[in-house]
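Much of our argument rests on the idea that a fold can be written as discrete symbols. In the encoding step, the backbone of a single protein was reduced to a row of integers, each denoting a local shape. We regard such an encoding as a compact summary of how the chain folds. The record that follows shows the chain in one-letter code together with its fold in token form:
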Amino acid sequence: MKTPSLRPKQVIKVLEKSGFYVKRQTGSHVIMVNEELKKAIPVPYHSKDLKKGTLEAILKRANVKKESLKKLL
């Protein structure tokens, strides 16, 4: 499956539906945390779409499959 183009706001919503919450924002990055997985994921926050490699890395760290991404949007 091809990786879709997503804006940072959309990625944050997907992560929130996956059990993450916004812990803080430091500069241009929002730090998303999941207590159960004991993970913190920085999401670059700007007005453009995220680069595909960045998006794939965020999804991989959050254990979110590309197939389930459509349901979470």
Notes: The CA atoms of residues 18 and 31 lie 15 Å apart. The chain has one domain: 8-72. The mean pLDDT is 93.
